């Protein structure tokens, strides 16, 4: 595959060149002394970091209902964030016309709740296999390679950076970089992810895990693809209350409090099943430390597998619930 | 000893108003009987059924839920039931992951198939009743 080799500081130079023009923005990461944060840059890059080994939230969250109105935005984000951006663009929450999405290879991330400095160097390289340090969502990531979006920045086996374009808009990004395109090595630092066994669990374990839930709905608010303005769980209209709660208890036995949490999580699980990218932002936002990623990722991988779909793979692929094939699912009827 | 009370299940059914609900009305006018634990909810099209309704029904005490619509290709709104098929098949897969697969069923019943409607519903009712009383 043809790509451009990037030398040190070249990405920053190219992005600074891009930012010189009016109305041009870059969304990327800012380095602090110990941590790395999201930032939208205007005019000039400052303390810029290409990779972010600390996961606090999914950057695509702030792209929701963003219609650029002539502004040009370059996203320099992790693959999971670019994938959520693609899903949101399919759901018409973002106008992809004015956005150049560049996915950057990711070695995995640590939780932002964890104390201490962000991992760097060799510690960072082996992070995705280090279950003790990395987030669970990252050790089971489906796509750590920068192969999604308009362009990608990837690292080869020798530790050199390469830029690849996947669409016309990606070519526009590549033209900002100096040098000629050349044949890139076939072997890259980050290999494709492995398949995981099918998710299967019983209600008992579900209830045990979710017994801590306090229904703060942080998981919904921080989920990049859970985008409805008028969520059915705004207010308590959808939750059993009064007589309905009484009926629920008499019909289905003793019930945990706050009531209706299994409703909330299972319904949300279905609603994001085809768009969930498994980034783990929900688990990161949960004040109670519920292993939400295990459930959301497991269910979404299973449901996406039914339609051989993978969320955020490409802009052209339709979300399975919004399309159909006439001759399929013959065994759906009982 | 007192004989154990037989438990009767309650089943919520979402019935498309153009076919299954018509079939249920026809079953009534033909004096065919189906279990009275089956509560039908009329919906304008089977694709109106948000899987959230089904999950809500299951977790608020229904022993079973079925969604019934026109045969694929016969939808009044041209393609509504193709979407239903995808959504319900996916929801079944989700419930299967939690071991609740037997709670949800999907039927295709046209307006003329009163007998088929009664058979399907009675069969589902009996199966669920058997499981409920075995416990």
Describe the structure.
Chain A is an alpha/beta fold and 334 residues long. The model of chain A has no long low-confidence stretch (mean pLDDT 87). Chain A is globular and about 70 Å long. Chain A starts with a strand and ends in a 28-residue tail after the last helix. In chain A, 28% of the residues lie in helices and 15% in strands. Chain A is built from eleven helices and eleven strands. Chain A has two domains: 2-183, no CATH class; 203-322, no CATH class. The model of chain B has no long low-confidence stretch (mean pLDDT 91). In chain B, helix 1 packs across helix 4 (114-134). Chain B has one domain (15-112, 124-130). Chain B has 135 residues and is α/β, with parallel strands linked by helices. The longest helix of chain B is centred in the C-terminal third of the chain and has 21 residues, at 114-134. Chain B is globular. In chain B, helix 1 (20-29) links the parallel strand 1 and strand 2. The interface between A and B is large, with 40 and 35 residues.
**Rg calculated over all Cα atoms of chain B:** 15 Å
Number of helices of chain B: 4
Biggest interface, chains and residue tallies: A-B, 40 and 35 residues
The tally of structural domains of chain B comes to: 1
Order of helices and strands of chain A: EHEEEEEHEEHHEEHEHHHHHH
Query: In which range does the helix fraction of chain A lie?
Result: 25-40%
Strand content of chain B: 15-25%
Mean pLDDT of chain B equals 91
End-to-end gap of chain A: 48 Å
Which radius of gyration of chain A do the C-alpha atoms yield?
21 Å
Q: In terms of structural class, how would the helical and strand content of chain A be classed?
A: alpha/beta
- Helix/sheet category of chain B: alpha/beta
Number of domains of chain A: 2
Task: Summarize this structure as a short list of keywords or feature phrases.
heterodimer, A: 334 residues, alpha/beta, nine-stranded mixed β-sheet, two-stranded parallel sheet, 11 strands, 28% helix, B: 135 residues, 4 helices
């Amino acid at each position: 595959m043809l790509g451009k080799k990037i030398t040190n500081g070249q990405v920053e130079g190219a992005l600074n060149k891009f930012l010189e023009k009016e109305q041009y923005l870059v969304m990327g990461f800012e380095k602090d002394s110990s941590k790395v944060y999201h930032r939208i840059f205007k005019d000039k890059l400052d303390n810029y970091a290409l990779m972010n080994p600390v996961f606090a939230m999914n950057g695509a969250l702030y792209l929701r209902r963003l219609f650029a109105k002539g502004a040009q935005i370059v996203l320099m984000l992790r693959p999971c964030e670019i994938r959520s951006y693609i899903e949101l663009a399919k759901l018409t929450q973002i106008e992809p016309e004015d956005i150049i999405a560049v996915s950057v290879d990711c070695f995995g991330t640590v939780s932002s709740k964890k104390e201490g400095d962000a991992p760097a160097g060799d510690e960072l390289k082996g992070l995705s296999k280090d279950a003790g340090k990395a987030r669970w969502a990252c050790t089971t990531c489906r796509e750590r390679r920068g192969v999604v979006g308009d362009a990608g920045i990837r690292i080869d086996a020798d530790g050199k950076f390469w830029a690849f374009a996947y669409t016309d808009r990606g070519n526009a990004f590549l033209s900002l970089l100096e040098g000629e395109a050349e044949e890139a090595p076939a072997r890259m630092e980050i290999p494709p992810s492995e398949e995981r066994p099918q998710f299967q669990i019983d209600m008992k374990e579900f209830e045990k895990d979710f017994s801590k839930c306090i229904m703060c709905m942080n998981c919904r608010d921080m989920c990049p693809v859970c985008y409805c303005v008028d969520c059915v769980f705004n207010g308590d209209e959808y939750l059993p209350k009064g007589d309905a709660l009484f009926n629920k208890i008499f019909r289905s036995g003793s019930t945990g409090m706050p009531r209706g949490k299994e409703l909330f999580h299972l319904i949300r699980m279905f609603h994001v099943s085809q768009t969930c990218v498994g980034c783990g932002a929900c688990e990161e936002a949960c004040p109670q430390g519920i292993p939400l990623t295990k459930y959301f990722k497991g269910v979404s991988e299973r449901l996406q597998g039914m339609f051989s779909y993978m969320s955020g793979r490409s802009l052209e692929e339709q979300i399975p619930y919004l399309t159909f094939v006439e001759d399929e699912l013959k065994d759906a009827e009982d | 000893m007192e004989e154990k009370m037989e438990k009767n299940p309650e089943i919520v059914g979402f019935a498309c108003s153009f076919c299954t609900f018509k079939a249920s009305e026809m079953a009534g006018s033909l004096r065919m009987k189906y279990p009275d634990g089956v509560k039908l909810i009329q919906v304008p099209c089977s694709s109106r059924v948000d899987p959230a309704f089904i999950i809500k029904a299951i977790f608020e005490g229904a022993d079973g839920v079925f969604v019934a619509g026109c045969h694929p290709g016969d939808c009044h709104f041209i393609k509504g039931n193709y979407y239903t098929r995808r959504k319900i098949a996916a929801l079944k897969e989700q419930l299967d992951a939690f071991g609740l697969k037997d709670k949800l069923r999907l039927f295709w019943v046209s307006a003329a198939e009163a007998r088929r409607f009664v058979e399907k519903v009675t069969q589902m009712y009996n199966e669920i009743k058997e499981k409920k009383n075995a416990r």
